[in-house]
Amino acid sequence: MRMIHTADWQLGKPFARFPAEVRSALTEARLDVIDRLASVAASTGSGHVVVAGDVFDNVDPGDRIVGQAVSRMERAAVTWWLMPGNHDHARAGGLWDRVRRLAPVNVRIVDIPVAVEMEEGSWLLPAPLEHRKTVLDPTAAMVEMATPPGALRIGLAHGSITEFGAAGDSANLIPPDRARSAGLDYLALGDWHGFLAVGDRTAYSGTPEVDRYGRDEPGACVAVDARPGTTPQFERVETGRFRWLSRKWAVAAPEDLERELTALRGEGRLSDALLSLRLTGVASLSDRVDMISSLEGRVAHELRHLDLDADGLSARPTAEDVARIDVQGALAGASNALQALAESGGSNSQIAAAALERLYVEAMRFDAEAAR
Hints:
Layout: E1 2-6, H1 20-44, E2 48-51, H2 63-74, E3 79-82, H3 95-102, E4 107-109, E5 116-119, E6 122-127, E7 152-158, E8 160-161, E9 173-174, H4 178-181, E10 186-190, E11 196-197, E12 202-204, E13 220-225, E14 233-238, E15 243-250, H5 254-265, E16 273-283, H6 285-302, E17 305-315, H7 319-324, H8 329-344, H9 349-370
Parallel strand pairs: 1-2, 2-3, 3-4, 6-7, 7-10, 8-9, 10-12, 15-16, 16-17
Antiparallel strand pairs: 1-13, 5-6, 11-12, 13-14
């Protein structure tokens, strides 16, 4: 049987710390990925999509999110198997009852740990979560789930493999050999947001649309070809639109910044990237101001979003920098005192450098306005 393994859609994730337009784009991208998963299923000849938990970000994602998800799945020529995870755990009268009332015939909800036949000879063994956290192994029941002799056994679970270093009272732990002990032909896992194969019969699909910094690769699913009693074939297939990039650039002059930006543009469209950028190095005051101005005034608008940390880029004011601060009287004395303090390397040198930079920026702004 060919199928698509996916997980951690987390539909309805709020992305509260981002501006409204970014939040809207990220929210829609998570819904759009349902359509891309359907396309991957069609292109690989897969008749089923199994979702290993966290379909929704919480137990009350809102009517629009639920309605959009169901309608997009309904129009795809594939059967969707949705299982509760820790974010959208099952509870009586809750989210999954609402979804079930809206679900068309090609959307199946597996919210109880009972084997269900997917198609003739192929059975799904789900391990839905009834609580956000449990100290019990959610896959333990798979060992006792009976299926007909020679049937294909597909496990579906959400949790952490114990080899990840989890210990003690960690929640939702799954033993790394569960596929073997439960006689599974493939174990589809969710919770880990990146693709990860655990042996030759178990894998995390990762999220189909990345939602945090730390993973440069786009979101993905897993295309699986499973046959009873043989090692399954599975491969990662990219589905995500947005890339969440983390970079640390050491720069000393605008040309250094432009070199890094050229390389970044070569990786893909900036409009589909969220960039967490940390600048380090030492630059003249004018160069530091120019580089930050370029990032905030130009590059930030090319990107979907920019998180900039320039605290590691120190300014070393030059005589030319100070000369451009064309001030008289007390301000002239202040600029000279700030320059001396910034160059001293003492405990207040960074504060002095920042103050001098502020004075520099305001002087340049005043000159620009006076020239109009």
